[in-house]
Design goal:
Elements: H1 3-30, H2 33-38, H3 48-61, H4 68-80, E1 86-87, E2 92-93, H5 94-129, H6 134-148, H7 151-165, E3 188-189, E4 194-195, H8 201-207, H9 211-247, H10 251-258, H11 263-300, H12 306-315, H13 319-347
Antiparallel strand pairs: 1-2, 3-4
Helix pairs in contact: 1-13, 5-6, 5-9, 5-11, 6-9, 7-9, 7-11, 8-9, 9-11, 10-11, 11-12, 11-13, 12-13
């Protein structure tokens, strides 16, 4: 089977999953009847005639008096147009909130992913190459300990140790509060604490040449990024080490050694590439799980990303944000899975024929 045929096949198989996800979110929104559904679009402070008029408009727009399957199609059409409801806490459309806060979460995830890749490969390969040595046993104990720790415990440990106790790094927010008034209104919305044009404060400050804001906001990124890295690191090292140990026992590796190829070349040029294949898939699944970890980590460090926003919305009964986040996170997981399947098929052509 050619690669493009495999890709089309995976896309076709993806459609029922996406439809199922949208139907699940739709069902959750309608479990409480029209009242819960309309709560996504109506400000709780709106009363009287204005509220009644808006209810009538929304009832007509989403055909809430029609059968459920009719309502689903009108709701789905609104979602495809980017209408995920209105955030009652933000006072803005839910889609606007995603545009504002998602870049920070993506930044944390990318930083954690890159750090994990840089650190895990040499440690995993080196540990497997020196199996049962003192170093290998230390790596196994450390990774097992980290792997067993929930994300929130890693976050709290860093928060207390490096933030509260030693004050080595800032542990709250995206920037020191004393610096907020110094940020120019030209590229920073002080009402919603959002920077422009990228909505990533360190990058925006750098683009505008404000080095003090750029450096301080960068320091606020370190602890959340390190927490997410530690949460991801242990699993990748364990998978890579196990894969590397299996590859090192293959016949072609033994043949290379028998030919007198130096051990370093055997590990780096013969074994590492094949050991990375299963790691790529696992790495992607763990990275997609980081968005779930970001909800906890951002809340611990009060870092304003999607996780922080979703938690704040849940605590304040902002139904639109909670349902919108459920749909978006689900789509991220589905699309990530598709990309990983295609990447794995590209790296290992045998997958296309299974």
């Amino acid at each position: 089977m050619k690669l493009w045929v495999y890709v089309i096949r995976r896309l076709v198989l993806l459609l029922p999953t996406i439809i199922g996800l949208t139907f699940l979110v739709f069902a959750l929104e309608h479990l409480g009847g029209n009242t819960l559904f309309l709560a996504q679009y109506i400000n709780p402070h709106l009363t009287g005639t204005a509220r009644e008029k808006l209810v009538e408009e929304l009832t007509a727009k989403f055909h809430l008096n029609d059968p459920v399957y009719i309502q689903y199609f009108y709701w789905l059409a609104a979602v495809f147009q980017g209408d995920l409801g209105t955030s009652t806490t933000l006072g803005q459309p839910v889609a606007t909130g995603f545009v504002w806060f998602m870049p920070n979460t993506i930044m944390l995830t990318l930083v954690a992913s890159v750090l994990t890749w840089i650190i895990s490969i040499p440690i995993g390969v080196y540990s497997a190459a020196r199996r049962d040595s003192i170093l290998d046993q230390g790596v196994r104990v450390a990774t097992f300990t980290l792997y067993s720790m929930p994300v929130f415990l890693i976050g709290f440990a860093l928060f207390i140790a490096l933030g509260t106790a030693w004050h080595a790094l800032p542990d709250q927010g995206n920037i020191d509060p004393v610096l907020l008034p110094t940020i120019p209104d030209a590229w920073f919305d002080h009402t919603n604490a959002v920077s422009y044009p990228t909505h990533i404060l360190p990058l925006d400050a750098f683009l505008h040449g404000d080095w003090t804001i750029a450096w301080n906001s960068f320091l606020h990124v370190i602890l959340p990024a390190v927490a997410l890295t530690l949460a991801l690191l242990a699993g990748i090292i364990r998978i890579l080490r196990a894969s590397m140990l299996e590859v090192l026992e293959q016949d072609y590796v033994r043949l290379a050694r028998a030919k007198g190829v130096p051990e370093r070349m055997v590990q780096n040029f013969h074994a590492k590439k094949n050991a990375l294949l299963p790691t790529v898939t696992s790495y992607g699944y763990l990275v997609s799980g980081l968005f779930g970890g970001a909800v906890v980590i951002e809340d611990i460090f009060a870092f304003k990303g999607i996780g922080w926003w979703t938690t704040d919305a849940f605590l304040n009964g902002d139904v639109g944000v909670v349902m919108g986040s459920t749909l978006v996170f689900g789509l991220i997981l589905v699309v990530t899975t598709l990309i990983l399947d295609i990447l794995y098929a590209f790296l290992d052509p045998r997958i296309r024929y299974e």
